[in-house]
Amino acid sequence: MSGLEREALLLSIRVGLVATLVILPPGVALGWLLARREFRLRTIVDALLTLPLVLPPVVTGWILLVLFGTQGVLGAPLARLGLHVAFTWKAAALASAALAFPLLVRTVQVAIASVDVRLEEAARTLGASPLRVFWSVTLPLASRGVIAGAVLAFARSIGEFGATISFAGNVPGQTRTLPLAIWSELQVPGAEAAAARLVALSVALAVVALVAAEVIRRRGEALNGSAR
Amino acid sequence: MSALTARLWRESAPRLDADVTIDAGITALFGPSGAGKTTLLHALAGLVRPERGRIERAGTVLFDSDRGVNEPPERRRIGVVFQEPRLFPHRSVRENLRYGAPRADVPRDFDRAVSLLELDGLLERHPMSLSGGEQRRVAIARTLLADPAVMLLDEPLTGLDGARKDRALQLLSDVHREFGLPLVLVSHSLPDILRLTTRIVVLEGGRTIAAGELLDVLDSDEVFRLADSLGLESHLEVEVLGTEGGLTRARVGETELELPPIDVAAGTRALVAVRPEDVILAAAPVLGTSARNCLEGRVSRVARLSDRLLVTIDVGGSLRASISAKSGDALGIREGATIWCLVKAFSFRWRRVPGDGRRDLPERAGD
Question: Which of A122, A136, A140 sits opposite B86 (nearest CB)?
Answer without folding.
Answer: A122
